[in-house]
Amino acid sequence: MYSQGLIGAKTETTEDEAFLAAFQARIDAEEKIEPNDPMPEGYRRTLIRQIGQHAHSEIVGMLPEGNWITRAPSLRRKAALLAKVQDEGGHGLYLYSAAETLGVSREEMTEELLSGKAKYSSIFNYPTLTWADIGAIGWLVDGAAIMNQIPLCRCSYGPYARAMIRVCKEESFHQRQGYEIMMHLARGTAEQKELAQDALNRWWWPSLMMFGPSDTDSQHGDQSMKWKIKRFTNDELRQKFVDATVPQGEFIGLSFPDPDLKWNEDKGGYDFGAIDWDEFWRVVKGGGPMNRERIAARQKAWDEGAWVREAALAHARKRKARREAARMAAE
Amino acid sequence: MSKNLIPLWEVFIRPRNGLAHKHCGSVHAADEVMALQAARDVYTRRGEGTSIWVVPSSAITASDPENKDENFEPSLSKVYRHPTFYEIPDDVGHM
């Protein structure tokens, strides 16, 4: 799930012209960059930041959905939700591994998430108030993430691209199970339809914000495109998402909370209303309804897992010492 | 943060018998038993394999990308190592 348009990476770099030109030539030739290859510091830093944000988003993204596992309305829905949340954990791990190939440690990344220095997708700072929110998240949030992630399968950095291929393969089930939940609610009783509509009303705008700041306000976009970390701009991806999603919502008889949303024949896509960027920045910077709770939950998991990590290492050391003692005795 | 870092393991999976184990990613784990369990959970949730190897990342020796040309370029220039280098009349048939 869940990458967001990159927030606040410094792409500037200090290498000499010849080095940068040689690197750009490899990128332009669609060569993949692998961990030990020479690369500009700005490229490395941008990727660490982006892959880190992406990994954190997967991990934090387990929280809003985990909230409903014990209250899923049927065994079928519960099994699917458990599998989905487990996938998100797996996606976080693929991505942390990809970031680690760039020279950052798992511990450093965890520390940056807990201290608030590293960001994660703003969408997870909204609460999951009803069961319909699980449908809306799968359909809209995973749908937006897929839109973002499919081009990342062709990212110039090999380990990130390979992780994204695995993630995208698994992601499609997430979106389909979410849409199925919405469809069942929308075709159910009046109260159920109302739940689905309410969830769509609350998740629509935050989903559009997932693509990150508008191209006109995003300073690092150009360099990321040039290095082929990104293949499409934030606004291009957002437009594709709107065009794909609106007919799906209309098909199940739901309406979108945007009076300016209408088909534009000339551009072959939908026009939509202005996004509240003040809200976006407020939520990114910690002012969303759930920011504190999300980080507190991660901090609690980290703190309460400390004895497990210590015990596992102590156990491994003990077994190793025993094996060595046995080997010495045998010699 | 703990000063004791949990070691990194490289994960190789055999998709099915008859195929080689192939590198698919890495996991952190305190020992090889937990590394295998973590690898199973992270990399084989959808029938991706029938066998897993885990290897401490620190045990891998890799060739240096700086020596890529001297290591690998010579094989490109030796076209006579390939069957298509040799001309056999069509009349001889498939060889």
Overview of the structural elements:
The complex is a heterodimer of chains A (331) and B (95). With 331 residues, chain A is mainly α. In chain A, 66% of the residues lie in helices and 2% in strands. A two-stranded antiparallel ribbon of chain A has the order 1-2. In chain A, helix 4 packs antiparallel against helix 7, helix 6 packs parallel to helix 8 and helix 6 runs antiparallel to helix 10. With 95 residues, chain B is an alpha+beta fold. A three-stranded antiparallel β-sheet of chain B has the order 2-1-3. The longest helix of chain B is centred in the middle third of the chain and has 12 residues. The mean pLDDT of chain B is 90. The interface between A and B is medium-sized, with 29 and 22 residues.
> How many helices of chain A in DSSP terms?
13
Could you give the order of strands across the largest sheet of chain A? Answer: 1-2
Quickly give the CATH architecture of chain B: Roll
How far is the first residue's CA from the last residue's CA of chain B?
A: 65 Å
* Count of helical regions of chain B: 2
Shape of chain B: elongated
What is the H/E order of chain A?
HHHHHHHHHHEEHHH
